[in-house]
Amino acid sequence: MKLTVKDRDFLKQLRALLDTKDLSIDLKNDGLKRLVLRQNYGNKIESAFGMTRQGVRWRFNRLFNEIYIAAYESLFWIESQFGTDLRQMALEIAKERVAMRQKAQKMGNFKLCRREKR
After folding, report:
1. 88 and 77 inside one domain
2. What's the whole-model pTM score?
3. How would DSSP label each residue in 9-60?
4. 3-class DSSP state for residue 67?
């Protein structure tokens, strides 16, 4: 599953709030383990993310308990079948793809700026 621009923006804001200790991520085990947000969950959080607390919880759950965990489940399954020998090559390919995507985005922004000047 691909991450959206909204997901990227959410993760950047979450990182900033984790760095300032306004939020933390904990493991909760109430029969089923999952990641949860902890600490200041008031108006500051709503304004920082530009969405309701329920929206913050929904996006956090989707990103961390669905997408992130599913990625590790896939890796676990593949590596249990083929071992970890391919891991380094897969990481190298992933890093290359991220770099190419970032370069394409920068070029797209440059083209957009040039069009606006005309």
Report:
1. no
2. 0.77
3. HHHHHHHHHHHTTSEEEEEEESSSEEEEEEE--SHHHHHHHTS-HHHHHHHH
4. helix
More confident call, 105 vs 68: 68
Q: Give CA–CA dist 57/37, Å, rounded.
A: 8
Domain shared by 16 and 71, yes or no: yes
Considering the domain architecture, whether residues 9 and 61 belong to the same structural domain is answered as: yes
Residue bearing tokens 């383990």: 33
Cα–Cα distance, 39 to 97 (Å, whole number):
35
Its domain, for residue 9, covers: 1-83
Residue 69 sits in the same domain as residue 107: no
Tokens standing for residue 90: 């897969």
